[in-house]
Amino acid sequence: MELQSTMSKIKILIGVMFVTAINASGQKETLTFNISKPKSELKLHTADSVFHINKNNPLFIEVTGKNKVVRVTAINGKVRRMPNNFFEIRFKNPGETVIKVFEKKPNGIVQLGISEAFKVVSPPKPTVYVCGVKNDSVIDKKHLIKIGKLSAELKNSRITPAIISYDIVIPFGDTIHVEGAKFPVQLKNKLLDVDEGDILTFMNINVLMPSRELAVVQEIMVFIAKTDQYSIGHRNETIRKEEK
User: 198-230 pLDDT, tens per residue?
Assistant: First the structure.
């Protein structure tokens, strides 16, 4: 009723102004009226394009206008509301989900504002490098000792994971535990004695992920080989070169 009354007043006002324009000039004129109305819009912001299982996935609802967010639901997920339209969603299993955001209008009517589908995936695993080479690659001993550290990367992430600790098995020697990413002096001295064809095994590599959780890479290996230059390469490619 209130909306109909408002529209009727607008029509009457337009009619009066139109008649006044005709009487004043003696001829018809084209009048343009811009009637604005308040807009209400919701936007959904997530930390990633997918959700991850067994972690709190942050969610923020941006609100434009007078409508208020009253409820957020997630298929197969548990939603927890935080202050200022922030939410956390947790999933136990990978699959698909639909996030629904319900809003309340100033007149008290609750309606669906957003419905958006997302994938739920297992947490990504880091890729660990030994002095810049991946698992099952060859590396020159000089390069190994000079670079002297492990590193990690996470696909589709702007944050570089950090190496916390690892164990390294020296051929025909001891297993050395290392804290941090860099080779300590003790380890570098032992690596001076490794020979071409020896295998270095890195085990129990603890990686600090962007989520502040620890991921464990069980084992990676690199092969000591004398390359043509001070460089690195894939083991199979190097073997084929040596056989020619």
Answer: 999 999 999 998 878 889 999 999 999 876 444
Yes or no: say if 210 and 162 are a contact pair by the CB < 8 Å rule. no
Cα–Cα distance, 124 to 114 (Å, whole number): 28
Residue with token string 């957003």: 114
Q: Which two tokens stand for residue 2?
A: 């209130």
Q: Using an 8 Å Cβ cutoff, are 140 and 227 in contact?
A: yes
Name the token pair of 207.
Answer: 């990686």
User: How many Å apart are CA 99 and CA 116, to the nearest integer?
Assistant: 5
The CA-based angle 144-148-154, given to 5 degrees, is: 100
Q: Among 114, 124, 51, 38, which Cα is nearest to 88's?
A: 51
**SS3 label, residue 240:** helix
Strands 150-153 and 127-130: antiparallel
- Tell me the helices (H) and strands (E) count for the chain, helix number first: 4, 16
**Which pair of structure tokens corresponds to residue 64?**
């434009």
**Could you tell me which residues come within 8 angstroms of residue 54 by beta carbon, excluding any fewer than 6 positions away?**
90, 91, 92, 123
CA end-to-end span of the chain, whole Å? 91
Give the pLDDT score at 18. 41
The region of weakest confidence among 8-12, 53-57, 85-89, 117-121 is 8-12
